[in-house]
Amino acid sequence: MKEVVIVTGAGHGIGRGVALQYAKKGSIVILADKDVEGCEDTLRMMEGNEGEIIRTDVSDPASIEALMNHVDHVYDRLDVLVNNAGVSVFKPLEELDVREWDMILDTNLRSVFLCSQAASRIMKRNEKAAILNIASTRASMSEPGSEAYAASKGGIVALTHALAVSLAKYHITVNSISPGWIEVSNYEGLRGIDHAQHPSGRVGKPSDVGRACLYLSHPDNDFITGENLVIDGGMTRKMIYEH
């Protein structure tokens, strides 16, 4: 039977890149996003177009339950969950209000818990399964005005190792990926200096994250769990001094 994969936030950016990599592999890919039009574009790009779109608002627990119930009923299995959906609001600390804080944490962090909890009920029937959580290098480094986003992504990294331990008895691996600069709109418009500041010599692409997901979710790599893989072209390992 073909591998069944859910990718949240699959209507654009990293989520689209991840979905396309799994489609290329031959998986059945469930595109879960509020952006149905974006998912329609993703579906058209998918090799074989084997999958479907399920409108999902990951900030709404009922919407998550509906997604998982549908997948369980239609496919009777779930092999991989990629928790990618997220939002960001960057504004001065004194201007960030509690509603914005709650919206970001509910969408970015609480959704990872709820999706993983619901998915594990299906996955535990498998011999092996994998959950991948998309965090960020902002979990460990920041710019001004990024408190809520940084908290949500740091929480994902911590939640990942907690889930990995809790779900180990079901042979479900749980890992996170922390992307750095992944250009999702105008790669050709990047400047030479943008690429040169990366030790890798280039800015990242969504496909870079997608290939990492394939690696971490491969059944043969079940010795890797509870880890956070940084994909940033080496930027967080580069010492920067002003001269």
What can you tell me about this protein's structure?
With 243 residues, the chain is α/β, with parallel strands linked by helices. Helix content is 42%, strand content 16%. The protein contains seven helices and seven strands. α5 (147-167) links the parallel β5 (129-134) and β6.
Q: What letter string, H or E per element, gives the SSE order? A: EHEHEHEHEHEHHE
User: Which runs of at least 5 residues are low in confidence (pLDDT < 50)?
Assistant: none
The global form is: globular
For the CA atoms, what is the radius of gyration? 17 Å
Total E-strand runs: 7
How much β-strand is present in the residues? 15-25%
**Tell me about the biggest sheet?**
7 strands, parallel
Helical/strand content category: alpha/beta
Order of strands across the biggest sheet? 3-2-1-4-5-6-7
What number is the mean pLDDT?
A: 96
Relative helix content: 40-55%
Distance between the termini: 59 Å
In DSSP terms, counting alpha (H) and pi (I) runs of 4 or more, how many helices?
7
Tell me briefly what this model is.
With about 240 residues, the protein is of the alpha/beta class. Helices cover about 40% and strands about 15% of the residues. It has helices at about 15-25, 35-45, 60-75, 100-125, 145-165, 190-195, 205-215, and strands at about 5-10, 30-35, 50-55, 80-85, 130-135, 170-180, 230.
